[in-house]
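Researcher: Re-running this chain for the archive, since the previous output was lost when a drive failed. Same request as before.
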Amino acid sequence: MKKIITLLFLVSFGFTQAQQAFKGKGDVKVNVGANLQNGGSGIQGSVDFGLGENFSVGFVSNYLLGVDTYIPYHQVAGQTYRKPDFGERFDAKARVNANLSSVIGVEQLDVYPGLNLGLHNFGGHVGGRYFFTDGFGVFTEVGFPIAKYGSNNGMYDNLNNQVTFSLGASFNLD
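Model: Regenerated structure tokens:
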């Protein structure tokens, strides 16, 4: 019972002390977290720069640390399986966001749909950030490909061309 009361206290304190999630022009947000997807998991980092009241641009990159679907250097049914190289594990994207905290009327929560153009595809994302203090919060994001580059004939072409889920810490740098 003590653990439940402590948890409820911490959650209520976090909500009462929450700060504004997106301030507009000049705002700089950095996200660092885990990237989860089918066949692997890794790390993701992103930075967004506010250009207007509800508009930001930025960059996102991710690197898959663990890949589940390979058998190192074996031949199965005539195909040689190998460990995915750096280019197959890494992705970098430029992105634009529509930051909707002022539209939905909740200052502490920034919901941001957007589009991105990366090394492996053109896609979209929908995310959210919640700030507990002026400098620290949490984020979650779902990314999805719209148009994939290449023929998808490579062994690991699907690693960076699928729906991804990310969550982690968000920092305010302005």
